[in-house]
């Protein structure tokens, strides 16, 4: 990073967790790229994926909405992207942004060019990139899914099913097993000054980035500082897991992974006496900071999160 230049930051994830990260990061740098999971198979995204044989646009749409500015135009576009058709016809439930993105993909046949065009239309503060060139399927090995055989491992398929499960997830993998990483996602990670992983659904939004071989290698070899942002509380798929166990899951799926910082809110971190040691085992300094909204709901506050990211990055 040149003297006086804002840092180049890549945020990896999907869904609401990535939305929170991007909403914070766009306040401190305009050299920002989102590398987004493409395994969603539920709702509007799942329908478009099946009907058009395209990447699921939902998480990409949310990332673009997060990068919209706080002025009237930005807020209006973000609201339009996220709005859904009502009624009970064939368009019911589809997000307007999903249809816009899918339509441009069909017209341009280049997913990144289309996303860049949407970003330009919105005045987005950064770029949105799919982590893979192909739509992916998440497969999880879980215990307790079949009540008749509570100790047996069951295979659970699909992002929507895995994200909702309250069974004990042992491991996840992707299909195809060796999916192609998108070249621009690899380039963004390799050229970054900082890479932020998380928060988000651990098995369906965070860990998948470590299961695309070319992207995982880029995350390992990049000279960027790696920041892991932990959730404010466990999601359904990691119900009952401590912060330390979240870090352990990353290490199990990517044994060579090393981190520089682990960021955790005291509401989740303070009851875990092992968190600092687990962070250190991956080379990371633990930062415990109040980054939650003040109404008590499990949501990150973009301004508070931005302040901590800026402090970590020395801005």
Classify the oligomer: single chain
Q: Into how many domains do the coordinates divide?
A: 3
Give helix % range.
Answer: 40-55%
**How much is the average pLDDT?**
90
Total DSSP helices: 14
User: What is the makeup of the main sheet?
Assistant: 7 strands, parallel
**Runs with pLDDT <50, length 5+?**
none
**Count of extended strands:** 10
CATH A-level architecture of the largest domain:
3-Layer(aba) Sandwich
Q: Give the N-to-C terminal Cα separation.
A: 12 Å
GO molecular function: LPPG:FO 2-phospho-L-lactate transferase activity
Family: Belongs to the gluconeogenesis factor family.
Function: Required for morphogenesis under gluconeogenic growth conditions.
Pfam families: CofD (PF01933)
């Amino acid at each position: 990073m040149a003297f006086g230049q804002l840092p180049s930051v890549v945020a990896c994830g999907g869904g609401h967790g990535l939305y929170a990260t991007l909403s914070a990061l766009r306040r401190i740098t305009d050299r920002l790229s989102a590398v987004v999971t493409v395994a969603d198979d539920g709702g509007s995204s799942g329908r478009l994926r099946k009907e058009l044989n395209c990447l699921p646009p939902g998480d990409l749409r949310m990332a673009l909405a997060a990068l919209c500015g706080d002025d009237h135009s930005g807020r209006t576009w973000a609201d339009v992207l996220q709005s859904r058709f009502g009624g009970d016809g064939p368009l019911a439930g589809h997000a307007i942004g999903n249809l816009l993105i899918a339509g441009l993909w069909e017209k341009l046949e280049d997913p990144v060019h289309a996303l860049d065009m949407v970003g330009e239309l919105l005045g987005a503060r950064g770029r949105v990139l799919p982590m893979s060139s192909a739509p992916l399927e998440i497969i999880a090995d879980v215990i307790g899914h079949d009540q008749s055989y509570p100790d047996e491992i069951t295979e659970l398929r699909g992002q929507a099913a895995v994200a909702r499960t309250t069974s004990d997830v042992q491991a996840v993998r992707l299909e195809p097993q060796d999916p192609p990483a998108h070249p621009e996602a690899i380039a963004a990670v390799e050229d970054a000054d900082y890479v932020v992983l998380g928060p988000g659904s651990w098995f369906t939004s965070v860990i998948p980035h470590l299961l695309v071989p070319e992207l995982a290698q880029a995350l390992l070899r990049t000279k960027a500082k790696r920041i892991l942002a932990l959730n404010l509380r466990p999601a359904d798929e990691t119900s009952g897991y401590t912060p330390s166990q979240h870090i352990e899951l990353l290490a199990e799926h990517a044994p060579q992974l090393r981190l520089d910082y682990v960021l955790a809110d005291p509401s989740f971190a303070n009851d875990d006496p092992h968190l600092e040691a687990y962070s250190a085992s991956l080379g990371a300094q633990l930062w415990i900071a109040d980054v939650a909204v003040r109404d008590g709901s499990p949501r990150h506050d973009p301004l508070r999160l931005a302040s901590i990211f800026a402090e970590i990055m020395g801005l």
